[in-house]
């Protein structure tokens, strides 16, 4: 592999859009995408996101590396943390697992650099993710490229790109626990709006959410 190759861990196609632009324009990298996400459940959701990933690869002519989907292993790794809130210890394990296998694949392929699209999310701590990436890089003797892709309206730009390209955009992070938490919050929000409509304060309360 060329010295300017990088393996980019892609959590979803929309998040990859702006991240790809940054790596191309800032570093002039030749990019290979790697969709390694055993945390995504159910399988139908995984397929939607993977199909969107393939669509982006084709539209922007970005090569990708096949990855295995092994949710059973992910459940084993995180089962002791299933009751953790979103953004807690379970998520840190998930980041480390995804980055570990991305670095492992990069090493196998002779690619000297790797990074991840995870830092574009406004709900994720880029410093923690980058710290994990640098820690994993030492294990394989390769280089992690620390980026905070959400900077300079990165997340907003990713939404614009995904609309332009017709990419599928999900409404929860990926694992079954984040899906359950999203659905619980939605029910609470719906109940609050419903209750406020009965008291005549619907408009006021809605603007405050």
Notes on the structure:
The protein has a 5-stranded parallel β-sheet, with helices on both faces. It is globular, with a radius of gyration of 18 Å. The model is unreliable at 201-209 (pLDDT under 50). It is of the alpha/beta class. It contains 8 helices and 5 strands. It folds into 2 domains: 5-174, 3-Layer(aba) Sandwich (Rossmann fold), CATH 3.40.50.620; 175-209.
In whole angstroms, the N-to-C terminal distance is 50 Å
Largest sheet: 5 strands, parallel
Number of domains: 2
Tell me what the CATH architecture of the largest domain is: 3-Layer(aba) Sandwich
What is the CATH first-level class name of the largest domain? Answer: Alpha Beta
Structural class: alpha/beta
CATH superfamily of the largest domain: HUPs
Mean pLDDT: 91
Query: Which consecutive residue ranges, at least 5 long each, have pLDDT under 50?
Result: 201-209
Strand content: 5-15%
Helix content: 55-70%
Number of helices: 8
Overall body shape: globular
According to CATH, the fold-level topology of the largest domain is Rossmann fold
Q: Indicate the radius of gyration in whole angstroms.
A: 18 Å
Q: Strand-and-helix sequence, N→C?
A: EHEHEHHEHEHHH
Strand order of the largest sheet: 3-2-1-4-5
Give the key terms.
Rossmann fold, 9% strand, disordered C terminus, 209 residues, globular, 8 helices, alpha/beta, five-stranded parallel beta sheet
Sum this structure up briefly:
The protein contains eight helices and five strands. It is an alpha/beta fold.
Q: What is the topology?
A:
Layout: E1 5-9, H1 13-27, E2 30-34, H2 43-60, E3 64-65, H3 71-78, H4 89-109, E4 113-116, H5 126-140, E5 143-144, H6 154-165, H7 176-199, H8 202-207
Parallel strand pairs: 1-2, 1-4, 2-3, 4-5
